[in-house]
Structures are given as C-alpha cells and as structure tokens.
Amino acid sequence: MSNRDKLVIFDTTLRDGEQSPGATMSVKEKIELALLLEQLNVDVIEAGFAMASEGDFKAVSEVGKVIKNTRVCCLARAKERDIDAAVAALLPAPLKRLHTFIATSDIHMKYKLNMTRNTVLETAVQSVRYARRFVDDVEFSVEDGGRSDPDFLAQVIERVISAGARTINIPDTVGYCVPHSFGQFIGSIIEKVSNADQAIFSVHCHNDLGLATANSLAAIEHGARQVECTINGLGERAGNAALEEIVMAVNTRQDLFPFDIAVDPQHLVALSKKVSQVTGFAVQPNKAIVGRNAFAHEAGIHQDGILKHRETYEIMRAEDVGWYGQQIVLGKHSGRNAFATRMRLLGYEFDSHQQLDQAFAQFKQQADRGERLDDVFLTSLGDALRVPMARV
Hints:
elongated; alpha/beta; 43% helix; TIM Barrel; 2 domains
C-alpha cells in the first residue's frame, strides 16, 4: 500500500447477507466463502452473530480457525452476555474484531429499546469498556445512525471512542438517506467529535431506496474510511451496498476517490457466482460488475464502437473483475461489423460486400423471428452461402 488513505473493506456477507430471508448458510458453506473472501483480500470478514444461535457461534469459531491473514469479526449487542459469546467464538482467530452496537435514533430508543438517551449513552460506553477487556479491536455501531439526532450521535461517538472503540460505524440501517445529505451528515459528525482522529469512521448502508452504493461513496467523500458491504449486495430487505460496486467505483474513479483498496477484483465474478450458488439467490443479468450482461453488447452502434476502440463504451475491462470470453452478443440490434467479426472468429471471411449483405439479411430475418443465433446457426449460414474460409 502507498501512503495515500486506505479504504477498509468490511465484508458482512456471512452475517448481514445471511439475514436475507431464505439465504441461510451452513457452517461448511460459510467456511468456503470465508476462504474465498480471504483470497479476495478483504480487510475484515464479519462471520456471524454468536449470540443469535449455536450455528452462528460455531460458524464464527470455525471461520476463525481457517482464516489466517484477514481480520475475523463477530457482532454483539451492547450486552455483556452477547459480548461474552462473541469473545468465546472469536478465540481461534489470529486477527479478531468485536463489533457491538446499540440504536441511537429517537424512534428506536422509544419504541424498540424503551430507553432514555442517557441510558443508551451509558450502555454504549459500558459495552465498549467491557469488550476492550478481552479484544483490542472494538468496533461500535450506532444503529439507525442515519436518522439519529446529530448532537446526540456525536456525544455517543465521542464517549465510546474515549472508552476504547477504534472503528465507529454510522449505518443507514433502514435505507432512508440520500447521497448528498448523507455525505454532509457524515462529515459534520466527524467535525463535531473532538477525538475523531482516534478512530476510523465507517458506514453500512442499506438499499431500500436503491441508494446504498451511492450513499457509501458520498460518505467516503466526506471522511468515512471503512465501508461495510456484501457480495452481490446481499442482505435483509433490499440488501446492502454491493462490495463489487464499491470496489470498482473507487478503482475506476480514482480522480474522485484517490484511495487504496487491498481487494483483488479479478476474483469478484467467481465469488459472486459462489454466493449465488450457496444462497440460491440469482444475480440479475444487468447487475453492475457481476451480472452476465454487465460487459455484454448487443446494440450495433455499441458493438461497432467496441470493436474499433474498446474504451468507446467500456469504462472497465471485463477481465479485471473476472469475466472472460466473448462479450459481443449477437441479436436483432447487432450491426454488420459485429456479425462479420463473429463469422471471422468462426473461420468465415466474406469475399465481397454483396456476400456480407446477403448473409447479414438472413441473420436479421432469423433474429426478428426470435430464433436462435448461436454458432451452430452461423456456421450453417456460412456453409449454405459458401462463404470462403479465412486463411490461417
């Protein structure tokens, strides 16, 4: 890493991702995914919520046994019994983090916790102090931080940093925030906290309004240096900020986000497919970065541009995120250049514009009928029109 600011990538696929209804993972599956996340080189793997179930406790413990170079994290409410469970589950991990939290929004404190601000403040401080007795690396989250009173939030954060928290996470727990105001909100909180320089500020954005990645990037612009995210944007309700989107947005727009990321993006597609396989949650074809159409081109104008100069329509290289093979998709919108290029790859070289026009017309007729345009069809078309084979 250079001397530039580092952006910490905190993956919570195994914890928050698993909270997607129907996405339960076995201990074995969590271990497999954790090893792939370590290969991806994320900074932190949140492996589970030890107090939630025996299965979660075991998953955190077993992940801790096999992960050697990545920090393993366990979630705990701001309660001693939760923290005790997390500490026990994390024992095998060489690098460990305890992540504790309590809600700070008025609506959560009144209707969920039935606690006053003073009680929440003292509970937060006590939980961090207690956790620091066992673990050096303690992260504290102010649940529903995006809807919390800024002055109270700053007060809580300042006190928990003094108590020993070294990462402060401000989540948009319900996906309520919008980028412009959320970025300013994060920046203002950091300015309000007198000891902010003693902690890394983090965000964990949910995608209820489809803004999780945008909100995360806005927070980075205003001082956040950790992003909590998941593969494929997996997570409860509409999910979380997608790890692959965060990583590639920063890598692609270094002019706006001049930060170092340890993640090796060449593993993104393989890991996306594995998470989809394990959870049974299909990745939508047009999903950014990892969807099968993310680098595919069918429109003739786009195909012609790509074939002439790739950067006309691609801001990233498909192979940099793990995609390989042909990304030019032939369809009813394809043009002559793409058609001729594909035929050439199959070994056919048109010897005249007239012959190309004749073949392309038949191709378009097939496309308009909605019939298959695979290599079998293209080969039969080339043979039927006696298109000469390209010279090797």
